[in-house]
Please model this.
Amino acid sequence: MTINDVGPRDGLQNQSRTLAPAERLRLIEALLAAGLPAIEVGSFVSPKAVPAMAGAAEVVAGLPVGAAVYSALIPNRKGYDLATAAGVTQVELVVAASQTMNRENINATTEAAMAGCEDIVTAAQADGVKTLACIATAWECPFEGVIDQDVVLGLARDMFAHGADEVVLADTIGAADPAGVKRLTQLAAQEFGADRLSCHFHDTRGMGVANVAAALESGIRKFDASIGGLGGCPFAPGATGNVATEDVALMLGQMGFTTGIDLVKLVAAVDVVSELVGHPQGGNSIRWLRRQIEKGTL
Model:
């Protein structure tokens, strides 16, 4: 079972306080200490568009080698070139399942976005770089509403056909429900194999952990989550925090899955990010986790 913490990227991109590269590295080090096996460390986007991600190359340069699987988000070929020049060996590229979201997010049509992804995947194959192809608004779009699952499956089919290593199904605004998650992930797993898929949920409506549980039933074993429930997309109205890493890790552990994560040290990482962003953070389970730590039962 793999939890990919996206706090240093997705979690921080929409915060009122912009963290310096050294501060973002401090957060990453806290996540590594807790045993996170995979971390999204930043994005190679224009600092004018997303000021919080300025200095991504400095962050990558400061990462402890081999401590986890690191990835970075890239918006286009220029971002890919910058990321790989910095030493990134796993990139995430994004195409939304709705035309309007693609225009709002990257100022391109879905067709143009897919063409750009195909170009990046081709380059990545030649460079030995792993590609994670994320389908944003896979369940619902803030502009167009509920998304036809056939559209999502078609995008995934095209991404795999062009050589993507993994497809991430993303509930960008936290609008999905467990029944809808199960329907889409079952179909995707049947066609592409669950081991080639992962899921990215937000907790806008309080169903993030329930949606993780629904995807588990389809065989999905990799999930994005964000320390302390940080998150929110600046280009998607209504998108609030990601499902909290501590909530997902606690649930999976209680269900008998092995995550390799130390919950006590994970709570310490919540404290670190709370200090860095300047206000308390924590998922739905944080109070219970703190009580168990105080009692010495965790």
The CA atoms of residues 1 and 259 lie 5 Å apart.
